[in-house]
Amino acid sequence: MTTKLDDASWHSEGEGYPPEAGPEAGATHIGMFLAWAVLAGHVSDGLAEDAADDVAALRERTTTPGAFVLDLCDGKLLAEDLDEAGAAFASAYYAGDVDEGGLYLEDYVDAVSPGDGEPEDVYRVPDTWETYDLVGPLVDARFSQWDDEGRPSVLRHRAG
Hints:
The chain is mostly helical. The chain is 51% helix and 4% strand. The chain has 8 helices and 2 strands, in the order βαααααβααα. The protein has helices at residues 8-12, 28-39, 45-50, 52-59, 65-73, 84-95, 104-112, 129-148, and strands at residues 4-7, 76-78. A two-stranded antiparallel sheet has the order 1-2. Helix 2 (28-39) packs across helix 5 and helix 2 (28-39) packs across helix 8. It is globular and about 40 Å long.
Protein backbone atom coordinates (compact mmCIF):
# COMPACT_ATOMS: atom_id res chain seq x y z
CA MET A 1 0.00 0.00 0.00
CA THR A 2 1.26 3.45 -0.89
CA THR A 3 1.07 6.08 1.83
CA LYS A 4 0.83 9.55 0.34
CA LEU A 5 2.01 12.11 2.89
CA ASP A 6 1.51 15.15 0.68
CA ASP A 7 0.70 16.10 -2.89
CA ALA A 8 1.30 19.47 -4.55
CA SER A 9 -2.12 19.25 -6.20
CA TRP A 10 -3.81 19.16 -2.78
CA HIS A 11 -2.42 22.66 -2.32
CA SER A 12 -2.54 24.18 -5.81
CA GLU A 13 -6.12 23.00 -6.35
CA GLY A 14 -7.23 23.81 -2.82
CA GLU A 15 -9.25 26.64 -1.37
CA GLY A 16 -7.21 29.71 -0.48
CA TYR A 17 -4.34 28.93 -2.83
CA PRO A 18 -3.02 32.18 -4.34
CA PRO A 19 -3.46 31.80 -8.12
CA GLU A 20 -0.56 34.16 -8.81
CA ALA A 21 1.79 31.65 -7.16
CA GLY A 22 1.43 29.14 -10.00
CA PRO A 23 0.85 25.41 -9.44
CA GLU A 24 4.54 24.63 -8.89
CA ALA A 25 4.53 26.68 -5.66
CA GLY A 26 2.42 23.95 -4.07
CA ALA A 27 5.45 21.64 -4.30
CA THR A 28 8.15 23.82 -2.75
CA HIS A 29 7.60 22.77 0.88
CA ILE A 30 7.34 19.13 -0.19
CA GLY A 31 10.58 19.40 -2.14
CA MET A 32 12.41 20.90 0.83
CA PHE A 33 11.49 17.91 2.99
CA LEU A 34 12.37 15.38 0.30
CA ALA A 35 15.68 17.16 -0.34
CA TRP A 36 16.43 16.85 3.37
CA ALA A 37 15.68 13.12 3.18
CA VAL A 38 18.00 12.70 0.19
CA LEU A 39 20.84 14.68 1.74
CA ALA A 40 20.43 12.97 5.12
CA GLY A 41 20.44 9.50 3.56
CA HIS A 42 16.80 8.69 4.27
CA VAL A 43 15.47 7.85 0.82
CA SER A 44 14.53 4.35 -0.23
CA ASP A 45 17.02 2.22 -2.11
CA GLY A 46 14.52 2.11 -4.96
CA LEU A 47 14.39 5.88 -5.35
CA ALA A 48 18.15 6.24 -4.95
CA GLU A 49 18.79 3.59 -7.63
CA ASP A 50 15.97 4.38 -10.05
CA ALA A 51 16.70 8.09 -10.03
CA ALA A 52 20.45 8.10 -9.47
CA ASP A 53 21.07 10.98 -11.90
CA ASP A 54 18.29 13.11 -10.39
CA VAL A 55 19.50 12.37 -6.86
CA ALA A 56 23.04 13.35 -7.92
CA ALA A 57 21.70 16.61 -9.40
CA LEU A 58 19.96 17.36 -6.11
CA ARG A 59 23.08 16.58 -4.08
CA GLU A 60 25.12 18.82 -6.42
CA ARG A 61 22.45 21.54 -6.16
CA THR A 62 22.01 21.70 -9.92
CA THR A 63 18.26 21.23 -9.52
CA THR A 64 16.04 22.76 -6.89
CA PRO A 65 14.10 20.79 -4.27
CA GLY A 66 10.71 21.78 -5.70
CA ALA A 67 11.74 20.91 -9.25
CA PHE A 68 13.07 17.56 -7.99
CA VAL A 69 9.77 16.57 -6.36
CA LEU A 70 7.74 17.80 -9.34
CA ASP A 71 9.90 16.16 -12.02
CA LEU A 72 10.72 12.93 -10.25
CA CYS A 73 7.80 12.32 -7.91
CA ASP A 74 4.95 14.09 -9.71
CA GLY A 75 4.69 16.55 -6.81
CA LYS A 76 4.03 13.81 -4.26
CA LEU A 77 5.74 12.81 -1.02
CA LEU A 78 5.26 9.06 -0.62
CA ALA A 79 6.37 6.99 2.35
CA GLU A 80 7.69 4.36 -0.09
CA ASP A 81 10.25 6.88 -1.40
CA LEU A 82 11.83 7.05 2.06
CA ASP A 83 13.84 4.49 4.00
CA GLU A 84 12.30 2.96 7.13
CA ALA A 85 13.54 5.66 9.51
CA GLY A 86 12.72 8.43 7.04
CA ALA A 87 9.16 7.17 6.57
CA ALA A 88 8.59 6.84 10.33
CA PHE A 89 9.98 10.33 10.92
CA ALA A 90 7.89 11.79 8.09
CA SER A 91 4.79 10.20 9.57
CA ALA A 92 5.55 11.63 13.02
CA TYR A 93 6.78 15.08 11.98
CA TYR A 94 5.40 15.87 8.54
CA ALA A 95 2.00 14.19 8.77
CA GLY A 96 1.51 14.21 12.54
CA ASP A 97 -1.94 13.14 13.64
CA VAL A 98 -5.39 13.50 12.13
CA ASP A 99 -6.55 16.26 14.47
CA GLU A 100 -3.50 18.48 14.68
CA GLY A 101 -1.39 17.60 11.65
CA GLY A 102 2.38 17.67 11.81
CA LEU A 103 4.89 20.25 12.94
CA TYR A 104 6.80 20.39 9.66
CA LEU A 105 4.63 22.97 7.92
CA GLU A 106 4.59 25.16 11.04
CA ASP A 107 8.40 25.00 11.24
CA TYR A 108 8.66 25.68 7.51
CA VAL A 109 6.47 28.77 7.63
CA ASP A 110 8.21 30.07 10.75
CA ALA A 111 11.59 29.70 9.02
CA VAL A 112 10.91 31.08 5.59
CA SER A 113 7.56 32.83 5.30
CA PRO A 114 7.90 36.11 3.40
CA GLY A 115 4.65 37.45 4.83
CA ASP A 116 2.94 38.03 8.12
CA GLY A 117 2.03 34.45 8.88
CA GLU A 118 -1.04 34.17 6.67
CA PRO A 119 -1.79 30.55 5.65
CA GLU A 120 -1.16 31.23 1.95
CA ASP A 121 2.34 32.58 2.68
CA VAL A 122 3.63 29.02 2.51
CA TYR A 123 3.10 29.22 -1.27
CA ARG A 124 5.14 32.41 -1.67
CA VAL A 125 8.41 30.84 -0.56
CA PRO A 126 10.96 30.61 -3.39
CA ASP A 127 12.15 27.21 -4.55
CA THR A 128 15.84 27.90 -3.93
CA TRP A 129 18.77 26.44 -2.10
CA GLU A 130 18.74 29.52 0.13
CA THR A 131 15.30 28.40 1.30
CA TYR A 132 16.61 24.88 1.86
CA ASP A 133 19.51 26.24 3.90
CA LEU A 134 16.95 27.74 6.31
CA VAL A 135 14.70 24.69 6.44
CA GLY A 136 17.22 21.80 6.41
CA PRO A 137 18.78 22.56 9.81
CA LEU A 138 15.31 22.73 11.39
CA VAL A 139 14.43 19.32 10.00
CA ASP A 140 17.78 17.99 11.27
CA ALA A 141 16.94 19.33 14.74
CA ARG A 142 13.48 17.77 14.63
CA PHE A 143 14.96 14.44 13.52
CA SER A 144 17.35 14.56 16.50
CA GLN A 145 14.46 15.44 18.82
CA TRP A 146 12.39 12.58 17.41
CA ASP A 147 15.30 10.16 17.82
CA ASP A 148 16.11 11.40 21.36
CA GLU A 149 12.46 10.92 22.36
CA GLY A 150 12.50 7.27 21.29
CA ARG A 151 11.00 7.84 17.84
CA PRO A 152 7.39 8.52 18.86
CA SER A 153 4.63 7.99 16.30
CA VAL A 154 3.69 11.69 16.53
CA LEU A 155 6.07 14.54 17.30
CA ARG A 156 3.88 16.89 19.30
CA HIS A 157 5.95 19.67 20.78
CA ARG A 158 8.59 22.11 19.76
CA ALA A 159 12.29 21.43 20.28
CA GLY A 160 13.53 23.71 23.03
